Amino acid sequence: HRHFISAADLNAVQAAELLELADGFVDLNRQTSKKLDLLKGRTVMNLFFEASTRTQSSFELAGKRLGADVVNMSPRSSSMSKGETLIDTAVTLNAMQPDLLVVRHASSGAASLLSQKVGCSVINAGDGQHEHPTQALLDALSMRRAFGRVSGLTVAICGDVMHSRVARSNVSLLNTLGATVRLVGPPTLIPAGADRWGAEIHHDLRSGIAGVDVVMMLRLQLERMQGALVPSAREYFRFWGLDREKLAAAAPGAKVMHPGPMNRGVEIDSDVADDPNISLIQNQVEMGVAARMAVLASLAARLENRP
Ligand code: CP
Predict the structure, then answer these.
(1) Where does the chain bind L-aspartate (predicted)?
(2) pTM higher than the cut 0.90
(3) Is the shortest distance between the CB of 55 and ligand 1 below 6 Å?
(4) 261 is in an annotated binding site
């Protein structure tokens, strides 16, 4: 594919190749000199209609470490209508001849829509509740480096699955890579039809994470909820917040992940999140740069023959 819109764009061989490439970039990023020229002469445009700390800065670093020119744009979504304005924006940007366009937008399907209107490669950096494929890639890279493999692991994705693009992309990529996936959350936060995604559904945190290798906690996405559905933080933490006591149900040596940003004391206890022996959360951030370098390099290689 010219674009990277969904984790399902990757088959098992392509996913393994990207992870291998990214793994090498992790080692490069730990060196004093981090610059390559794989993307020399290329232009990467970051177009973030929604807030981001990790994804935007890691795409910027990834592009720069590969030698590309990187342009960051953060349009104020409040002043733009969806649909028409998005297409207008895409056509305008396309006229500036970028090679790679990295897009985050609050509407599911936005990245796919843009990809049909531009001549460059489009990378989905999160579209509404739909997908966040580079997050799934960096999560798989984090697991691979922690366990030496992804295949055969059991991963529980817990909490607000309903509003989570991270969950959807992870279920897809983890299945492609041969992991077993559970979705764990209250019935109100597991979407109808999730039983067809390729994951077991559990409605109790302790039994849902029993024996798993990885507990991936999701942010409670209050900004995507209607008032009537919003639980209190204290009530949510009591049943769905991961603390050391609940984590004891997981396999010995289990690792804890969270895509960030975290709501401490809501879905995760700081005691667990900050323990370097069990938490991969900082590793995930580090892997984000390498995973995005791999995606940029791989798509740029496909553009090589473009006039
Ligand atoms: N995990 C993630 O996408 O974080 P940001 O929203 O900070 O980019």
Answers:
(1) 82, 165, 219
(2) yes
(3) yes
(4) yes
261 CB within 6 A, ligand 1: yes
Environment class of 281 (CB within 10 Å of its CB; exposed 0-12, middle 13-18, buried 19+): buried
For 248-301, write each residue's pLDDT tens digit.
Answer: 999 999 999 999 999 999 999 999 999 999 999 999 999 999 999 999 999 999
Using a 6 Å cutoff on CB, does residue 133 contact ligand 1?
Answer: no
List of E strands, 17-175 = 43-48, 69-73, 100-105, 121-127, 154-158
- Residue 74, pLDDT > 80, answer no
Question: Are the CB atoms for 260 and 142 separated by under 8 Å?
Answer: no
pLDDT of residue 225: 78
Element (H, E) at 217: strand 214-217
Tracing tokens 């470490």 back to the chain, one arrives at 65
